[in-house]
Design goal:
The protein is an all-alpha fold and about 160 residues long. Helices cover about 65% and strands about 0% of the residues. The protein is elongated.
Length: about 160
């Protein structure tokens, strides 16, 4: 439960340090071999790249015109910071799919670019569920290949089951 800290006011930074150390100790996670309760994917080492990625992801959910192009710019900035950042490639693919859906670029231009980005994402991280889901969408919408789309959709669901 709670803990009471009685310290002299002059030592406020020391109190803060002890409180923080106590919180960290309480929140420690111990992973055992085979334990999958921890984070599924480590955060990237380059937090600037991750920040660009998150800005792009935020824009992908925005309904205004130009949002997918702005998102694309953030994903490209993320890759400039971290060239092996698979999630940024998946973001680029999603941005192109959104641009096609919003009729901002023709399908014949946007879908192949999305496909290249998905391929890059999967080359870097074959277990990236987002990339498999995008791959499935492209196989279905652009290639009209229902079998390949189903295979990719199933793989995406294996990696990241839908939650309710």
């Amino acid at each position: 439960m709670g803990k009471i800290y009685e310290e002299p006011f002059e030592d406020i930074s020391g109190v803060q340090d002890r409180i923080m150390a106590s919180i960290v100790e309480q929140l420690k996670v111990v992973l055992r071999p085979g334990d999958k309760s921890g984070p599924r994917r480590p955060l990237p080492e380059n937090f600037i790249a991750y920040e660009f990625y998150m800005k792009g992801r935020d824009l992908l959910g925005r309904p205004w015109p130009g949002a997918p192009q702005q998102a694309l710019g953030f994903f490209e900035q993320a890759l400039a910071q971290a060239p092996h950042f698979a999630l940024a490639y998946a973001g680029i693919a999603r941005a192109y799919v959104n641009m096609v859906d919003q009729i901002l670029v023709p399908a014949a231009e946007g879908f192949p670019k999305a496909g290249l980005a998905v391929k890059s994402a999967l080359d870097l991280d074959p277990d990236l569920a987002d990339a498999h889901a995008l791959n499935a969408w492209l196989r279905f919408q652009y290639d009209y290949d229902g079998g390949a789309a189903e295979k990719s959709f199933r793989r995406a669901l294996e990696l990241k089951p839908a939650t309710r």
